[in-house]
Amino acid sequence: MEILKAIPLIFFISKTWLQLVPKEKIIYVRMSSGSKVSVDEGVDPEGSSSSLTSVKVHRLKGIKDGQYSNPVFKKLSVINGEINRMPREELIAKLGELKLDSRGVTDVLKKRLKTYYREKKLTKAHVPTPKKSLPEFLMVIDFEATCEENNDNYDHEIIEFPVILVCLESKQVVDEFHSYCKPRINPQLSEFCVQLTGITQDKVDSAEEFPKVLRRMEDWMKSHELGAKNKFAVLTDGPWDMSRFMYHQCRQNKITYPRWGGKWINLRKAYSNFYQCRRTKLNDMLENLGMTFEGHLHSGLDDSRNIARIAIRLAEDGCELKVNEYLHYDRNENAFKSKHITPDSPKGSTSEEELNQSMDGLHLTNDGAANETEEVDDLLEYYRIQRS
Ligand code: AMP
Ligand code: MG
User: Fold this and answer.
1) How far, CA to CA in Å, does 131 sit from each of 48, 128, 320?
2) Is 175 helix (H, G, I), strand (E, B) or coil?
3) Strands 232-236 and 263-266, how do they pair?
4) ∠ Cα 104 110 114 (to 5°)
5) Catalytic member of 156, 248, 298, 328
């Protein structure tokens, strides 16, 4: 009975201990068969140096099931340990030797080298890598909207609608859609908005209103057979483009939120998960990759082109870009919210089911009942990040 009472305490201590132990000191237990247990100290078989999270537990389950029993994983673990210890100059030299890109901060270089060895060794050892359902194309979107310097309770309307189409196989931009949109509620752009976005009054005056632009964009999608023959995912810098700007615009125009916009890849999330770093804004992501922003910051077209450059670099470095957020209709709060999809959610998990349910929910009309306080706080936080 006493032992039973102690179980939660033991669980708590072991979990807390794992958080406190330096990453390199975490011991990964390899259970290849039956009672045979060997111990690897250092990085885990995936080469990541993050702490034991639920994702890690998922991976450890893979180890238990024999997924990592091939000796090549032991070799990779040793290689990854060596890469973790390499000084920056050595990393640059090694990448140069292998004719790989050597731009970027140290964590980026480490990840690039680890991915190279992982792919090389697994191919050589004929280890089958599970076939994942990944998009063939990315639709990179970065909306610009009407705004004022102090945006509290401001009714944003989309004024620029750019889409960059990236082919993930060739890792190239293959087409662009671009249009300005005429705002209805605040047809006159504020001086602040013109300065921020570089969008002049004549551009929006001569543009069509959002519903017509959306229809043209969807025709453009059809011309590329996106969603028909070609599998694609929307990619944005943060959750706001779809869950705030697009969602509000559809509500203002009383049009159904498009099904294709119900889920997306949040680049900031994909980036920080892949390179194991802090979530950061567009300029900093570029800088960490050794690149600089090209064009006018806050121009929708230039922003989306630069976001596409980061996405391409991530794909080149071996990141599997897949949907990690979706618009979720919360019946209890009577509001739409963006929700996180865990990177390792197995197919058919709750997230996947929830996603499908929410996609059906998108056809509900949710007239003005969204949780406005939460939305205002969220947007203010966004502007704060943008200004910093
Ligand atoms: P972004 O994609 O960062 O260029 O921002 C998208 C939209 O958010 C802009 O078109 C503005 O409507 C709004 N926005 C961004 N930053 C600010 C800011 N510092 N102050 C007010 N509104 C902003
Ligand atoms: Mg922008």
Assistant:
1) 21, 9, 11
2) strand
3) parallel
4) 130
5) 298
Q: 96-130 burial, b for 16+ CB within 10 Å, e for fewer? A: eeeeebbebeeebbbbbbbbbbbeebbeeeeeeee
144 annotated active-site:
yes
Residue-wise pLDDT tens digits, 102-139? 999 999 999 999 999 998 998 888 887 766 778 999 99
Q: In this model, does residue 338 exceed pLDDT 70?
A: no
* Radius of gyration of the chain, Cα coordinates, nearest whole angstrom: 23
CA of 383 to the centre of ligand 1 (A): 6
Residues written for the chain: 388
Distance 147 CA to ligand 1 centre (A): 7
- DSSP class of residue 50 equals -
Nearest CA owner, ligand 1 atom 4: 298
224 is catalytic: no
Any ligand 1 atom below 6 A from CB of 197: yes
Ligand 1 atom 21: residue of nearest CA: 149
Strands 172-180 and 263-266: unpaired
Which residues have CB under 8 Å from 180's CB, separation 6+? 159, 160, 161, 199, 203, 204, 206, 207
User: Which residue of 189, 246, 381, 386 sits with most ligand 1 atoms within 8 Å of its CB, as the best mutation to test the pocket?
Assistant: 386
- For residue 58, report the distance from its CA to the centre of ligand 2, in Å: 36
More confident residue, 214 or 66: 214
Hey, whose CA ends up nearest to atom 15 of ligand 1? 383
Q: What is the whole-number distance in angstroms between the Cα of residue 296 and the centre of ligand 2?
A: 10
- Greatest mean pLDDT among 223-237, 338-352, 353-367 lies in 223-237
Which residue in 67, 171, 172 sits closest to 128, CA to CA?
67
Residue 139 pairs in a beta bridge with: 165, 234
User: Which residues on neighbouring strands pair with residue 265, listed in sequence order?
Assistant: 235
Whether 306 lines ligand 1, by a CB cut-off of 6 Å, is no
Closest C-alpha to ligand 1, atom 3: 298
pLDDT of residue 7: 56
